Amino acid sequence: xxxxxxxxxxxxxxxxxxxxxxxxxxxxxxxxxxxxxxxxxxxxxxxxxxxxxxxxxxxxxxxxxxxxxxxxxxxxxxxxxxxxxxxxxxxxxxxxxxxxxxxxxxxxxxxxxxxxxxxxxxxxxxxxxxxxxxxxxxxxxxxxxxxxxxxxxxxxxxxxxxxxxxxxxxxxxxxxxxxxxxxxxxxxxxxxxxxxxxxxxxxxxxxxxxxxxxxxxxxxxxxxxxxxxxxxxxxxxxxxxxxxxxxxxxxxxxxxxxxxxxxxxxxxxxxxxxxxxxxxxxxxxxxxxxxxxxxxxxxxxxxxxxxxxxxxxxxxxxxxxxxxxxxxxxxxxxxxxxxxxxxxxxxxxxxxxxxxxxxxxxxxxxxxxxxxxxxxxxxxxxxxxxxxxxxxxxxxxxxxxxxxxxxxxxxxxxxxxxxxxxxxxxxxxxxxxxxxxxxxxxxxxxxxxxxxxxxxxxxxxxxxxxxxxxxxxxxxxxxxxxxxxxxxxxxxxxxxxxxxxxxxxxxxxxxxxxxxxxxxxxxxxxxxxxxxxxxxxxxxxxxxxxxxxxxxxxxxxx
Length: 558
Prior knowledge:
By secondary structure, the chain is of the alpha/beta class. The protein contains 19 helices and 25 strands. Strands 1, 2, 3, 4, 5, 6, 14, 15, 16, 17, 18 and 19 form a twelve-stranded mixed β-sheet that branches. Strands 20-22-23-21 form a four-stranded mixed β-sheet.
């Protein structure tokens, strides 16, 4: 039996069409397309001839992630290709990969097998430079802040009360806590600082929630980067540099157009993490796709307890859009791992472990239902799955009253029939009634919003606020920020704030250690447990298997 080709080998063998052909087929007029080489382009929404947004949104989410793999992006791409194969006018809206995970543990994020977006190597690496622009804007702000302090500090900024950090699009634990300004009076004012990863930056969140370039400028101006000595918030507008930051982002804010192996158009734009940020691609890209297609297939990061909840309560609220269907991706392998099976034994059939682990999927399904949307379960098939396991899981979904289909889009995607059954279920859900609602009202206090999320979505008994978090709650109330939605920063591996507790735990408390008002993005980040805003690299980074051959072609990128 010959070895299966790698994702990179499949991508390199695919026939990729010139981007102007993809644009023309999608209804993008030539004036709105800006080409970045032969196979990538940016769309200027202000030059589109297309009507206002009207396309229906399909949100793809998943069970809690495991090292076994769930395949959310692969399913997103395969589902969109299958909907297009069935005759629907479809467009995909995805996030851009971050270099930190690409070179670290995760590898690439462009789908897999025959359900990929292309050119996968370029998308996974520097793409069109959007993340570099966001990194530059973030770090320009902090250079301007520190220069302001050095030049006399007319705004009376307290260097001890900075709430904004420099960023880097890389996992680098050595930069989490640093001291800057050392070396004498001419080197600046010494203070403690640190780096976050670019995808955790508030500028990334602002970038992804802005409705247009004017809104982008206004949101950048509202960013609070620190406080004065008398504890008054200081904003980018107070510093007067929102115009310069917008200038640095004026090209990046245009959505990126690429294609799947099957030729389905895809907008890949923005990329906040879902465990430390809001986990959704840019609102501009989603709304642009809704102008061009009848169905837009998008995804939100990690499990439905994180990305999907934030899509519903943050992105959908700000954008005035509602998902017409939600797909929850699950795999037999991951469910068995949730049931206690070690990764090395996942290829062995084990109905008892599957039954023990399905409680994780069950909680995610019930959570989606709380938003008034009927979920569809996509069982992403692996070659090691037994027929008995797949049949058991389909029967379990039927008993739960949830539509479900096995999707073999890794091996039979690219326009093949591997996702046809799933596409039919999703198309039916899109055409059906929709009673979408948010989980909580913005009129609730920040404390009650957090309590609602941890009890209703995570299944916790309650929430414990640290002393610093309680002080921050008082600051939020005093500064008039209580009406903002909440963005939970929590481990993606568990409903709890302890990554080791799998399945669907009960009898636990969520521990909020701090609250970070993101006044430009328009939400309050609640830091829980030990979640980090600057990840570290694993013991064996994915970078160790990467290279280029003598012709400059990538090697080892997955």
